[in-house]
Amino acid sequence: MNTCANSKVPELFGSMVFNEAVMKDRLPKDIFRALKQTIKEGTPLDPAVANVVASAMKDWALSKGGTHYTHWFQPMTGVPAEKHDSFISPNEDGTVIMEFSGKELIKGEPDASSFPSGGLRATFEARGYTAWDPTSYAFVKDGTLYIPTAFCSYTGEILDKKTPLLRSMEAISKQACRVLRLFGKECKRVTTTVGPEQEYFLINEEDYRQREDLIITGRTLFGAMPPKGQEMDDHYFGALRPRVAAFMAELDNELWKLGILSKTKHNEVAPCQHELAPIFSTTNIATDHNQLMMEMMKRVAKKHGFVCLLHEKPFDGVNGSGKHNNWSLSTDAGENLLEPGRTPASNKQFLLFLTAVVKAVDEYQDLLRVSVANAGNDHRLGANEAPPAIVSMFVGDELEAILKAIEAGETHTDVEKTMMSIGVSVLPPIPKDTTDRNRTSPFAFTGNKFEFRMPGSTLNIACTNIMLNTAVAEELRQFADALEASANFDEALASLIQREIKAHRRIIFNGNGYSAQWPVEAEARGLLNLKSTPDAIPYYTTDKNVSLFKRHGVYTKVEMESRSEILAEEYVKTLHIEALTMLDMLKKQIVPAVISYSKKLADTVAVKKSIGVDAPAELALVQALTEKTAALIDRQRDIEAAVAAAPAAVQQAPRYYHDAVIPAMEAARQTADELEMMVGETDWPFPTYSKILYYI
Ligand code: ADP
Ligand code: MG
Question: CB atoms < 10 A from the CB of 99, how many?
């Protein structure tokens, strides 16, 4: 086991990262200062500086065993891409030296033809460019220097997730600084901060290898419920199995080396489900780190005989996995703009930022929903485990009371934090939080940040944060416009907050989001309930949303259309592959297994009969199996027919797959799962839920 003594953690942390400390150590003073300014304030980088940085970076990478470098980028698949080039450069005498120039650091030209572009870039014009993102540190992994980069096409359209994220961060920074100026604060940059909590499953590799569905689709397409699911609530925060604890310890080490602030780990609700949360960082870095974290989880799992499942719904009947996006805004002076302080009712600056978020979530609920839409997450949202598919906000009792008072034009007196007595005198009294937790809300205020709980576990969080940052930027822009033009700031501010809270109060819901009444009430409030990905996709490119992104320079209309098309294509491809995998398993594994098991039984009946013993129970079982096998083969044909009739057009295909292919798949699964309960365990062709979920 690769654990390190705890005294070594500070030494280990970031040891493979070209971070500020390394830069300071290895770069001339003026170069370091120039680079730091770029990192902190987003100013453009001088090419002369890049040359010096590249050379220092290479020397450092060599000292860490590096031989190659790669421009690491996040194409529209959301999964990072990399192409490795070595540092070697030939000498005339047949030897080589290790070289790396500023040009190579700043710009790369990967062949981009095989990445999805949603019609943006014809393959004959395959050229794509990667551009260094100095705001996210380079690092060494497996002998390669990884340089985080943005990715765009020859004609300048963006082809990745990082560029729009950086643009959205610029947009919100610009507007938030305008607002802060009105409060008399000079600030150069406001950064959005994110701490993504990552859920995942760990199962035995040996079980995984026997399941084609897990290997190909990442989730089980068949499987009857085990006698025990998660109803006892005994896994959540339970003691870690020693093997799992060893995995987590090694994972921490690997993440720390890469400078990832891995902090909290625990068992989750479902059996075999766990969670890892890092300490928050800027949105850009949090996104890169979350991608690395997912990769490391899979890799370290293998070393411990596990497979890490990141799918949103690997198993039916137990909870799926999400990724909570904890989000806030912080100034370059380190002030958290969503910190209410001790007296939130009189903290007008906080109330204004809060109002901006409330307005943004209400007006752009469709975009937030789209940002988390995919085939996997459709199994979670609204399925009594994750938040519902309706976007709403929880603000807690204290803020609710303040907002109500504002609406009514009354004054609200802040309550001092009270101490909670636990009733045992040896235990110290603990301060009571002013907001209780609400686990059912998709967008909850949690003290000094918002927690967006709809993202699925595989999601690249860039998607969600692009939408969120830009929507809030727009509201801040409107507020700044209005307030800058006002003659009396205090009065204008008070009436603006009152007006906007009144106008957007419908989005605030502090009740139980899982209850049956909520969708009814939400509809009465006029909130959207986009239950599936095909329901959500058309909202991506509405005029309202296109003009939002255009105004803030985040996406052009064409870029949005391409992204919406990719989302639709991905949805269809996922379901298509799942349907084909089901057919494969039905034809090659399940049907043959059931037939041979019923033959075994039929042989038993015949043998018993030949010696004069009646076997009515076995006979009945053979008959039942035979009938169900016929039904299963019918269901199998239904899937084939549904897939064969699928329209090719990307406009129609998602709806069709949702309405025709999914029901056919569900029907086949139900029959197959019933058969699983009728066939002996050793005769079933792959490990069942009981075996997979309850390993030791
Ligand atoms: P929970 O009770 O939900 O576990 P925590 O306070 O432990 O909440 O935080 C959960 C996540 O929120 C962590 O990743 C944490 O770093 C992150 N977080 C805390 N403060 C902020 C902030 N200001 N901005 C963004 N994320 C934050
Ligand atoms: Mg949480």
Answer: 14
Model confidence pLDDT, tens digit, residues 144-199: 999 999 988 877 788 899 999 999 999 999 999 999 999 999 999 999 999 999 99
Residue 409 CB coordination number (10 Å): 9
What is the per-residue pLDDT across 550-576, written as a single tens digit (0 to 9) for each?
A: 999 999 999 999 999 999 999 999 999
Determine the pLDDT at residue 426.
59
pTM over 0.85: yes
338 HSE (CA, 13 A, CB side): 24
pLDDT of residue 430: 54
The CA-atom distances, in angstroms, between 543 and each of 9, 120, 213, 517 are 51, 20, 40, 32
Distance CA 466, CA 4 (A): 37
Question: How many helices (H) and strands (E) are present in the chain, helices listed first?
Answer: 24, 19
Q: Is 308 left (phi over 0), alpha (psi -120 to 50) or beta?
A: beta
β-strands 419-420, 430-431 pairing: antiparallel
- The domain 198-221+232-321 is classified under which CATH number: 3.40.50.1000, 3.40.50.300, 3.30.590.10, 3.40.50.80? 3.30.590.10
Quote the pLDDT of residue 309.
98
Question: Residue 487 class from Cβ within 10 Å (0-12 exposed, 13-18 middle, 19+ buried)?
Answer: exposed
**pLDDT for the residue numbered 494:** 94
> Ligand 1 pocket: which residues have CB below 6 Å?
193-195, 197, 277-280, 326-328, 336, 448-449
Task: Tell me which of 3.40.1440.10, 3.10.20.70, 3.40.50.10490, 2.60.120.320 is the CATH number of domain 9-160.
Answer: 3.10.20.70
* Contact criterion met (CB below 8 Å) for 534 and 654: yes
Residue 41 has pLDDT above 60, yes or no: yes
Taken in order 345, 347, 349, 354, is the CA torsion positive or negative? Answer: negative
Higher pLDDT, 40 or 578: 578
Range with the largest mean pLDDT of 152-166, 406-420, 662-676: 662-676
Q: Please tell me the distance between residue 447's alpha carbon and the centre of ligand 1 in angstroms.
A: 10
φ/ψ (deg, to 5) at 123: -65, -30
- Give the ligand whose atoms come closest to the C-alpha of residue 448: 1
**Residue 451 CA, ligand 2 centroid: distance in Å:** 7
Counting ligand 1 atoms within 8 A of each CB, the residue from 276, 280, 438 with the most, and so the one to mutate, is 280
Using pLDDT thresholds of 50, 70 and 90, give the confidence band for residue 129: confident
Distances (CA, A) of 458 to 192, 199, 220, 399, 614: 21, 9, 16, 33, 55
pLDDT at 514: 85
Q: How far is the centre of ligand 1, averaged over its atoms, from the C-alpha of 280 (Å)?
A: 6
pLDDT in tens, 496-517: 999 999 999 999 999 888 888 9
- Tokens representing 323 are 């990724």
Q: Which residues have CB atoms below 5 A from the ion given as ligand 2?
A: 197, 324
Amino acid present at 400: E
Q: Above 50 in pLDDT, residue 1?
A: no
Exposure class string for 653-671: b at 16+ Cβ within 10 A, else e: bbbbbbebbbebbebbbeb
Judge whether 583 and 216 are in contact, CB under 8 Å.
no
Which of the following CATH numbers is that of domain 570-693: 2.60.120.560, 3.10.450.50, 3.40.50.2300, 1.20.120.1560? Answer: 1.20.120.1560
